[in-house]
Specification:
This protein is 40% helix and 21% strand. By secondary structure, it is an alpha/beta fold. It has two domains: 263 residues, Mur-like, catalytic domain (UDP-N-acetylmuramoyl-L-alanine:D-glutamate ligase, 3-Layer(aba) Sandwich), CATH 3.40.1190.10; 154 residues, Mur ligase, C-terminal domain (Protein-Tyrosine Phosphatase, Chain A). The strands form two sheets. The chain has a nine-stranded mixed beta sheet with strand order 2-3-1-4-5-6-7-8-9, with helices on both faces. Strands 10-11-15-12-13-14 form a six-stranded mixed beta sheet, sandwiched between helices. α1 runs parallel beside α4 and α2 crosses α8. The chain starts with a helix and ends with a helix.
Length: 429
């Protein structure tokens, strides 16, 4: 019965969203890929919001129900059937009678199961498609026959791109390079390592009193160079996020210098390599929004590069939805850990492979700790911390590793502002 109700809700909201788009004809930007979708969507919104009336997907509304909700401007009703019925009524009013509607939509789009993107592409016609990255082992591969099937599903969105549309892509991704060579639309690349239209370089961590406070890099387009500063976050992923935003901005004739100024004031979403003050004068790198093999590797390498830490502590939780690839991918992370961290704390059954492999690759068993209970890990970590420690926390969202961050952050009263999954519906889970 619940599944029938869900299908009914999705069908009606999708119909209403289609009616609204046909009536108002906004300029549509879609963001997809296997990493960095929400951060990229938010950065694009930041550079456009002072130039046009623009709406973005809230949080990570990227599913078959999240996209229609974003188009209609309606909230997620979660498990409340009365609120869902209210959404249907409100959606009908908006679809048929609303007079003011955004000129531009920035929509995050994702896939959980086969057919998700194809269904979306059957009715959504974007003007710009932004693709972030298509790693060898993407999230949600558990539900597909192969990693290639996940990639093929995501690429369905390109089939919906308007004939005069623009494909903006991560040029460091070889799969996306190949796609760009084949599509008929205008293609714009952004990168950190390979030459393309929007190229980041010289990314550097910013320090204050030997404590990381952010990062900076140079962004180049043609013969123009700008310095972009990112406060409160570290990691090479920011160069891709901001490069993509600059590429989109170019389609609205926004100067690169203005993009740099705007993004300097942009706030990176919580749980994406965010720098937080911890107990006992420690530093937390909060990367708890989600995890995948590619993202976990990137986070560890960022931890490795940080200077001035007394100890580097990696808290790594299970990476979910990897199917038959799960064991080997957790082992690969375990191989990397001894090069990047002094202490390893794992969360969950799957991450025991990470701990075992780290031990096999030279890490002492004295600095490897394994937990299944996140709350217990957070409590015991409080007494283990010492001044000068840098703590990376990363796990798939179902592990709820943000609870560890809340236990060890110096301002837990600001958890609702600084951490992911702090609304009432998540707190009840």
């Amino acid at each position: 019965m619940k599944q029938i109700f869900k299908k009914f809700i999705i069908a009606v909201l999708t119909y209403e969203a289609r009616i609204l788009l046909n009536r108002t004809k906004p300029f549509i930007i879609t963001v997809t890929g296997s990493v960095g979708k929400t951060s990229t969507k938010d950065a694009i919104f930041s550079v456009l919001k002072t130039h046009c009336h623009v709406r973005k997907s809230e949080k990570s509304f990227n599913s078959e129900i999240g996209v229609p909700l974003s188009i209609l401007g309606l909230p997620n009703a979660w498990d409340n059937p009365i609120s869902w019925l209210k959404n249907l009524i409100d959606g009908a009013i908006i679809a048929f009678f609303s007079k003011k509607y955004p000129e531009v939509l920035v929509l995050e789009t994702g896939v959980d199961r086969p057919g998700d993107m194809a269904n979306l592409a059957s009715w959504l016609r974007p003007n710009i498609v932004v693709m972030t990255r298509l790693p060898d082992v993407p999230v949600h591969v558990e539900y597909f026959s192969s990693p290639e099937a996940v990639v093929a599903e995501k690429l369905e969105l390109l089939n919906a791109l308007k004939p005069d549309g623009v494909f903006i892509y991560n040029h460091d991704d070889e799969k996306l390079q190949s796609v760009a060579n084949e599509v008929r639309q205008n293609c714009i690349g952004y990168s950190r390592y390979t030459p393309t239209q929007f190229k980041a370089s010289a990314d550097t961590v910013l320090y204050r009193d030997d404590v990381a406070i952010g990062s900076t890099f140079t962004l180049t387009h043609l013969d123009e160079h700008v310095q972009i500063k990112i406060m409160g976050s570290v990691g090479v992923q920011n160069t891709y996020t901001y490069g993509a935003a600059a590429a989109v901005a170019s389609q609205f004739d926004i100067p690169l210098s203005e993009v740099a100024t705007t993004l300097q004031n942009h706030q990176v979403p919580p749980g994406r390599m965010s720098l937080l003050s911890g107990l006992k004068n420690t530093l937390i790198i909060d990367d708890t929004y989600n995890s995948s093999p590619t993202a976990a590797e990137s986070a560890l390498l960022s931890l490795k590069e940080l200077k001035g830490a007394k100890r580097k502590i990696a808290i790594l939780g299970d990476m979910l939805e990897l199917g038959r690839f799960s064991s080997r991918e957790h082992e690969k992370i375990g191989e990397l850990v001894p090069q990047c961290a002094d202490v390893l704390i794992t969360l969950g059954v799957r991450s025991r492979k990470t701990a075992q492999t780290a031990l096999e690759h030279g890490m002492s068993e004295k600095v490897i700790f394994q937990y299944d209970d996140v709350a217990r890990a957070g409590r015991e970590l409080q007494s283990y911390l010492s001044p000068g420690d840098v703590v990376l926390v990363k796990a798939s969202q179902s592990i709820r590793a943000e609870r560890i961050v809340e236990e060890i952050m110096s301002e837990p009263e600001r958890a609702k502002e600084l951490l992911v999954r702090q609304d009432v519906s998540w707190k009840k889970r």
